[in-house]
Amino acid sequence: MRNRLKYIPNLILILILTSCEYWDSGHDIIAFINDSDVALDITSQLDYPDLDIGEKSILAFPEWSRRVAPHSGNTEALKYQSPNWEIRFRDDIRSGVLVIQILDSKIVDSLDWDTIRSGNMVLQQYFVTLNDLERLNWILYYPPREIMKNIKMSPPYKEAKKIAK
Question: Which of 88, 92, 90 is nearest to 79 (CA)?
Fold first, then answer.
C-alpha cells in the first residue's frame, strides 16, 4: 500500500499541469500604436456597456505602463498575463466587448477626474471583440487605421480620422 501512496502526489501534479489553462499560449498583450502628435493614456473597461472612465482605471497603473508617446508603440498598457486575453474574454468580459479608452495625456495630467468625466474628454473609444483583436493581429492604432474601419468605435471611424488630423 505504501508503494502506491508515493505515486499519488506525482499523479496529482501531472493532472494539474495537463489540465491547467494557465499554461495556454494565448495572447497576453494587445499592442497599441500611437500615430498621432500627442501622448496618449490608454485604459480598458470590462463592464460594457458601462463606459464610465474612472480615475482608478488609469491612475492604478504607473505612467510608463499606460502612456504611449507620440509616434510610438506600447505593449504594457493593455497587458494581461493572468492567464491571457482569450481566457479573460471567456471568464470576465460577459458582454464579449472590451472597451479601450484613449485620452490625451495632457488632459489626464492637468484636469481632475470629475472634469474629465463630465466633459466626456475621451478622444476615442474602441469596442473590440475577441474576433476583432484576432483579425487585427492584436494591434490597435490611434488614429484608427483603415483595417479598423469595421470595428465599433466612438466617434465612428470616418469622424475619428477627421478629428485626429
Answer: 88
